Amino acid sequence: MSAGTGGGSGGVGVGVDVAEEFRRLYGYAPEGVWAAPGRVNLIGEYTDFNDGFVMPLALPHTAVAAVARRTDGRLRVHSADTGQGVVQLDADALEPLADTGWAAYPAGVLWALREAGHAVAGADVHLASTVPTGAGLSSSAALEVVTALALNDLYGLGLDAARLAVLGQRAENAFVGVPCGVMDQMASACCTEGHALYLDTRDLSTRQVPFDLGARGLRLLVVDTRVKHALGDGAYAERRAGCEAGARALGVRTLREVDHVQLPDALARLNDETVRRYVRHVVSENRRVERTIALLDGGDVRAVGPVLTEGHASLRDDLRVSCPELDLVVTAATDAGALGARMTGGGFGGSAIVLVEAADEDTVTKAVAEAFAAAGHTAPRVFAAVPSAGARRVG
Questions:
Q1: Sequence-ordered list of residues with C-beta below 8 angstroms from that of 395, at least 6 positions apart, any chain
Q2: Of 167, 259, 305, 386, which residue is most buried, by most CB within 10 angstroms?
Q3: Nearest CA to 220 among 39, 373, 63?
Q4: 168-211: pLDDT as tens digits
Q5: Distance between CA 79 and CA 71 in Å, rounded?
Q6: Total-model pTM
């Protein structure tokens, strides 16, 4: 399935395509087809592994999986998006941090389920995804969650969406080796159409927040800079370690326990300038999520724009995870009249989001494209973020 097939919706047409390819690959029909979306994060970056607050929304772009059980302890996985053949693995021999490439994501889920004591013998899997890879839109979490949901349904495990998300995070942390928080998997598993997900990552409590921008004459644009990022390269892990060092120095379990009113005193107690910057970002970012939810609850959606731009400055200057292309999106968009903009996701490339009046969408999009052309950058990909459904069975 190409990135354009089915419009990224994970609907019936896409399910049929994936099921037909499964039959061609494996010689029999799958037992079902499942879909799990990528996500874009409205606000709350690098807070999830600090027990903080986040507010993602699911995209219409999905990873779709046709799956059937096996009884012989074998895992066979294939992706329509890699150009590689079927990867065959022994479920009993799966080892964390082994070099299995893209297959580590579905294999890690099987490993995490079995490690948690669930009787999952094996599976045949065919995957296809419309979630752009390397764009900061959680393509890996979509693969993990769709695999977890399919195995949960087929093996009758009875796990709820939050538990599936935690198992997906476990797969990425321990099996793949990326020390991510749980936001991406929770967004993919738990988001609902027309809403943003207000998530407290300390206890995984959630609230579905209505997010119908169209009714208010607004758009949330995603600008994929096409600068690929790889969170396994150490930069993400270094920031996580720095946040943990800050928490230890302040005598708290996580930075969630530092209230924004305590921030000046907390910063004065830190000697390491890098750690101080990381702490300032996390504590102020948690506060930005709280401010955003208050604005949305009060119906003042346009006032969220400046909060987004403020968040980008913190990610750029304190956390230092932006890049010239992301900074250019924010500058060009806000100069052209956008209400606000910021990078989203892990950074070092990937995507930015831009909140605009619907009437200004074309003007802002053109301004960003012209700024990229003038700077000699590859043209960005721009699309509207439509709050979509979380993981579900589609066939």
A1: 12, 15, 16, 18, 19, 32, 33, 66
A2: 167
A3: 39
A4: 999 999 999 988 899 999 999 999 999 999 999 999 999 999 99
A5: 22
A6: 0.91
